[in-house]
Design brief:
The protein is built from 4 helices and 2 strands. 17% of the residues are buried. It is globular. 51% of the residues lie in helices and 5% in strands. By secondary structure, it is mostly helical. It has a two-stranded antiparallel ribbon with strand order 1-2.
Length: 81
């Protein structure tokens, strides 16, 4: 379970670019950050930063061979009013 104190923090953490990155990585399978940046047509440094942030909160796994992967199929959000 991953919790965010408020909606703005969730939206900053899972920005549209990061969400696209997660979707691509899930669909394509494990890959290097370089390959991922190339597929997404994004700057390597920015993709590396996004991967590091997403890995830090457990949404991306780093494999022993250096590749990264998404090991889940569903992301669910719940909001209390």
């Amino acid at each position: 379970v991953l919790s965010f104190a408020e909606l703005p923090l969730l939206l900053r953490t899972l920005s549209p670019a990061r969400f696209s990155l997660l979707q691509d990585l899930h669909a394509s399978g494990a890959s290097s950050i370089y390959e991922l940046a190339k597929r997404l047509a994004r700057d390597y440094k920015n993709v590396h930063t996004d991967v590091a942030q997403l890995a830090a909160i457990g949404l991306i796994e780093r494999q022993a061979d250096g590749r990264v992967a998404v090991a889940w199929d569903l992301l669910r959000a719940e909001f209390r009013l």
